[in-house]
Amino acid sequence: MKVIGNIIWLLCGGLETAFEYFMAGVILCITIIGIPFGLQAFKLGVMMLWPFGSRVDLLPGQPGCLSTIMNILWLLAGIPICLTHLLFGVLLCVTIIGIPFGMQHFKFAGIALTPFGRTVKSDI
Fold first, then answer.
1. Long-range own/partner contacts, residues 5-10 (CB < 8 A, 24 or more apart)
2. pTM of the entire structure?
3. Domain residue extents for the chain
């Protein structure tokens, strides 16, 4: 069932959002300072290709001040990606079949704004 969900996900905005994450990762990795941001973008881009069977968890303990600072700096790249998730979420929630995928996009919109202090885990 996860495979079918992932294939449908790719058609319902998964490829577009993964492409955005990968492009942001490439642009951010050009500079030394942007490498941590680019690596996080690549992790999220891979998750956008196959979201069913993976989850995003908060790191144990309180998020530190470094995660907060990184999330604030990330907003430059995160806001356009968040808007893409919101657009796909609204478009998919118009149909009954697309509601689960639209809700997934709404969940990823929040993650697109604050990815630091979180880790991507596979359920496989």
1. 5/52, 6/49, 6/50, 6/51, 6/52, 6/53, 8/101, 9/50, 9/51, 9/52, 9/101, 9/104, 10/49
2. 0.84
3. 2-122
Assign 56 to helix, strand or coil.
strand
Spatial contact of 49 and 18, defined as CB atoms under 8 Å apart: yes
Convert the pLDDT of each residue in 62-97 to its tens digit: 677 888 888 888 888 889 999 999 999 999 999 898
The DSSP H or E segment spanning 9 is helix 2-9
Which structure tokens are listed for 42? 């690549």
Q: Residue 66, SS3?
A: helix
Are 88 and 10 in contact, with CB atoms under 8 Å apart? no
Structure token digits, residue 52: 């069913």
CA angle 22, 23, 28 (to 5 degrees): 95
